Automatic annotation (TrEMBL):
Quaternary structure, from the entry: Monomer. Interacts with PqqE.
Classification via Pfam families: PqqD (PF05402)
Protein name: Coenzyme PQQ synthesis protein D
Record pathway: Cofactor biosynthesis; pyrroloquinoline quinone biosynthesis
Highest taxon of source: Bacteria
InterPro entries for this protein: PQQD (IPR008792), PqqD_bac (IPR022479), PqqD_sf (IPR041881)
Keywords: PQQ biosynthesis
Region described as Disordered: 1-25
Length: 109
């Protein structure tokens, strides 16, 4: 069980083996990370100090909804409305990897 209080941000604790991102978690970008459009590359990028991560379309769509208001379940539902099939587990794994890198923070729903 996660000892984090309700409403408190979680950074790396949600990605330990056996613990995943739940549907009620509310992801948001960490304070030192920005989502931006790169005119040169003509795509969304994740800007982190000394790092630029070029995102594919689905990654950019997921992170565009990571505002701390949407739950993971709402993000999956929104993407499901835009596209035919959105694997819930793939969205959770993507977010778990970003939480592990401390680029995304989770708040309990």
């Amino acid at each position: 069980m996660d000892p984090t209080r309700t409403g408190a941000p979680r950074t790396g604790s949600g990605t330990r083996p056996g613990i995943g991102v739940s549907g009620s978690d509310r992801p948001r970008l960490a304070r030192h990370v920005r989502l931006s459009f790169c005119r040169t590359r003509r795509c969304q990028v994740l800007l982190h100090p000394e790092t630029v991560v070029v995102l594919n379309g689905s990654g950019a769509d997921i992170l565009g909804l990571c505002d701390g208001r949407h739950t993971v379940a709402e993000i999956v539902a929104e993407l499901g409305a835009r596209y035919r099939a959105v694997p819930d587990d793939e969205v959770r794994q993507f977010l778990a990897r970003l939480v592990a890198r401390r680029w995304v923070e989770l708040t309990d729903g």
